[in-house]
Amino acid sequence: MQEIKIIKKEDIKYDFTDGFAATEILSETCPGITICKCCLKSGSTFEVETYAESDRMQLLFFTTCSGIVKSGKKIYMIDDQAVFVPDFNRERVFITAADTDLYFIRITGLMTEIDHRQMKNCQYVLPRFVRLRESIEYTERFTQESGSKVVSHSIIAGRHLGRYTMGWNIGAGPDFIGQHTHPTLEQWYFMIDGSKFTYVAGGDEILVNEGDVSFTPHGTSHGSECSEDGFINYVWFELNRAWEEI
What we know:
By secondary structure, the protein is mainly beta. It contains two helices and 21 strands.
């Protein structure tokens, strides 16, 4: 079984060209998935590389709030932390940073026949722009039964992007997310504003903070704990490998 992987915010370096930098992180965690931490300098514009639907899906998670996304003739204001899903390569996509540097996470993943079939069946319309505050709130049964007050949100629901899903968990300390296991899910956490908690996974206890990123392989028991002065606040991204032999 793979090990838990963590990259700390302070270990991520940026090399800028024309006001833009993209640093690939956790590159060896899962074949077919590429994750980059990106920064666009204030006043700069960047054209996003897009992919055919037969090739790769893409998610852009804006962790700071200053700029716009332009997709074809549509313009989306980045006035809150948000996720943008391009309509593959059917439209050109540009990002412009406003009066402060714009930080975001770019995720791409290979598309398979399973992804195409699930997207066709659910008829999900792209492009999609979702502010975190507008995402759908829900409660997981194991969280409710354990007495945790952490609030979960769905950003990209199952099947809308095939095997790929995304959500957001938030809760002020003292609080916790109980130990649980996903037999077929590869899972990444992106710690955002004010995060400070202990991630307990695979027998390890790891203090994580805002800007850190973790990877947890399928089949690994994991949960989170935070003290009175802590804060659980992260966006998760998952790949469901239920259709593979793993």
